[in-house]
Design goal:
The complex is a heterodimer of chains A (about 280) and B (about 300). Chain A is mainly α and about 280 residues long. Chain A has a single domain, classed as MetI-like fold (Orthogonal Bundle), CATH 1.10.3720.10. Chain A contains eleven helices and no strands. Chain A is globular. In chain A, about 50% of the residues are buried. Chain B has two domains: about 40 residues; about 250 residues, Orthogonal Bundle (MetI-like fold), CATH 1.10.3720. In chain B, strands 1-2 form a two-stranded antiparallel sheet. The chains are: A mainly alpha (about 280), B mainly alpha (about 300).
Chain lengths: ~280, ~300
């Protein structure tokens, strides 16, 4: 029987062509990640050594500054972010207010990082008069990672089965007792994942700390109080790359290497924990 | 008795804290908007809105100061348009590949790799762009003289916006009911015909939302564009503008705020740019959210 073919090209052939194209695209989009990681290993890996990481004119001040910065950021953002997640998952209904809260959080996640920097400058540095310091930078970064923490924590809370909550309530526990003793312990691992991701994000951000915390060089780079200025890795990388032509390129590459290794390492840990969690059976 | 009362009081305090944390998101958006507005408004005591938005000369420290933002706004538009022109087709194709074509093994490697792209700090993208990609392009293409230009920003941004676009598109494809896919196959269509004719149209609103969110992401990116687009406050013209140095709104804030005296006209003008950026990203994100919600409702 003669079947009429409405297609100019055999659909099976056009499928093969199209799918080949998709494979190529998939290969192409992995290129930058693979390229960056390999090139970092090649350029940075060859110059990195213990001496560079721990000496005062090496990366040590920037590593210390970034460590302080992300720790304080996490310390500020965690209680608020987890609180907001508990509200959204355990207390809030489905009303207009919740709809607005969710919209606000989505918008917070979309605010450009340099605009956070402006806000931090206006509020923390100028009005609250903290100056350009660790505290101003951490507070600014805390705002930036808040949506991340809320999203991860809420997902973790929602994965705790209802049955556990109902069981606890049926035994006479109050709502908060149930949350604290039953829900939170079971959601803890997921929340930690969110914290790790936020720390990674905060460690790599430059624009928010440009005018709120970071300096290129300081006579004493180790802050004694939270109101002391700091040196931070991403800012250091930015300045050495753009304004310091005399710095040994090996040094700059080493810094980029450490930054990428830190951020991707944290992300890998978070991805690993998350994939373990998704396989959990209740 | 007493301990029970203490428990009750502390529980009350904790629950109020949780409530406050819950609505903090709304408060923060309002407070950010308020602070930007407050620091931007003094600008307009001395300059008119039209003067600022359409002026073609940005040189804030020259004489009385020229605050024409048109070159910066156009610079941002060029870089963003270029980034979207690259990342939308790439992102869409990657999402289709992950959702419908890739074997499970490949999908499980590709998906985290794309997500990982979002984790690379923008300053690192900028560093690689200015030290490797830019000089390489300038050395190999005659039309491009300097290794820092608008389209280089677009290229770097394309990869940075990709994870957002892929994840939103992929969600949209997953939300397309399997019945549509299966009925199309049952009618004799190939998988590619099904994807093209049934799945993509059904996921249209998700794709539009991805476009908007990618736009918001690209226009707000700062460090990468600051490092690779050349920092030239000139009006980009025609297609050639893509291969010439430009200056975006974000890069201007980042480059100039550090040395600007607080409370000066220059200071307020940079907050005005921040306000414009905030309004753009706010609108784009809100519209995208409305579109996503509406399409989810339609499917339900």
């Amino acid at each position: 029987m003669n079947v009429r073919r409405p297609h100019l090209i055999d659909p099976r052939i056009s499928q093969r062509v199209a799918f080949t194209g998709f494979w190529l695209v998939a290969l192409f989009v992995t290129l930058p990640l693979v390229g960056i990681v390999l090139y970092m290993l090649y350029r940075g890996g060859s110059v990195i050594n213990w001496q560079l990481l721990t000496s005062m004119d090496g990366l040590y001040p920037a590593i210390v500054g970034t460590t302080y910065l992300v720790s304080l950021t996490a310390l500020i953002a965690a209680p608020v972010g987890i609180g907001a997640a508990i509200y959204l998952s355990e207390y809030a209904g489905r009303g207009k207010l919740v709809r607005m809260i969710r919209l606000a959080i989505i918008n917070l996640a979309g605010v450009p990082s340099v605009v956070y920097g402006l806000f931090g400058l206006a509020l923390f540095v100028i009005i609250l008069d903290w100056g350009r310091c660790l505290m101003s930078g951490a507070a600014t970064l805390a705002l930036l990672v808040l949506p991340l923490i809320i999203a991860a924590s809420e997902e973790a809370l929602r994965q705790v089965p209802r049955g556990l909550r109902e069981g606890s309530l049926a035994l006479g526990a109050s709502k908060w007792q149930t949350i604290r003793r039953v829900v939170l312990p079971n959601a803890l691992a997921g929340m930690i994942t969110g914290m790790i991701l936020s720390v990674a994000r905060a460690a790599g951000e430059t624009a928010p700390i440009l005018f709120t915390a970071a300096f290129y060089s300081l006579s004493n780079p180790f802050p004694r109080t939270v109101f002391d200025p700091i040196i931070a890795m991403p800012f250091q990388l930015y300045v050495t790359a753009t304004e310091e032509p005399h710095v040994d390129p090996a040094f700059t590459w080493a810094m980029a290497f450490v930054l990428v290794a830190l951020v991707l390492g944290l992300n890998l840990v978070a991805t690993f924990i998350r994939s373990r969690l998704r396989r959990r059976r209740w | 008795m007493l301990s029970k009362r203490i428990t009750r009081v502390s529980e009350w305090i904790i629950e109020r804290f949780i409530q406050i944390a819950g609505i903090l998101g709304i408060v923060l958006v309002l407070v950010i908007f308020f602070f930007l507005l407050r620091n931007a408004l003094p600008m307009f005591h001395e300059r008119t809105i039209a003067e600022v938005l359409t002026g073609t000369r940005w040189s804030p420290t020259h004489g009385e100061g020229h605050f024409g933002m048109a070159p910066l706004i156009l610079g941002s538009l060029y870089v963003t348009a270029g980034a979207l022109a690259l990342s939308i087709p790439l992102g869409l194709a990657t999402a289709i590949f992950i959702a419908e074509i890739a074997p499970r093994r490949v999908r499980e490697i590709l998906k985290p790799m794309v997500e990982m792209l979002a984790a690379i700090p923008s300053v690192v993208f900028g560093f690689i762009g200015m030290t490797i990609v830019g000089p390489w392009i300038a050395a190999n293409f005659d039309a491009i003289q300097v290794g820092q230009f608008a389209a280089l920003g677009s290229l770097m941004l394309c990869f940075m916006a990709l994870p957002t676009i892929v994840s939103i598109c992929e969600d949209a494809f997953h939300n397309v009911p399997r019945e549509i896919f299966n009925s199309s196959l049952a009618l004799g269509a190939t998988r590619w015909q099904t994807i093209r004719g049934a799945v993509i149209p059904a996921a249209r609103s998700g794709v539009i939302a991805a476009f908007l969110l990618g736009l918001g992401r690209a226009i707000g990116e700062t460090m990468t564009v600051l490092m690779v687009t050349g920092n030239a406050q000139v009006m980009p013209e025609g297609l050639e503008g893509f291969i010439r140095p430009v200056r975006t709104m974000t890069a201007t804030i980042a480059a100039e705020m550090g040395e600007t005296p607080h409370g000066s006209l220059h200071f307020h003008s940079l907050f005005t740019i921040g306000l414009i950026l905030f309004v753009i990203t706010f609108s784009v994100n809100t519209i995208a959210d409305i579109i996503i919600r509406r399409s989810e409702k339609d499917i339900a």
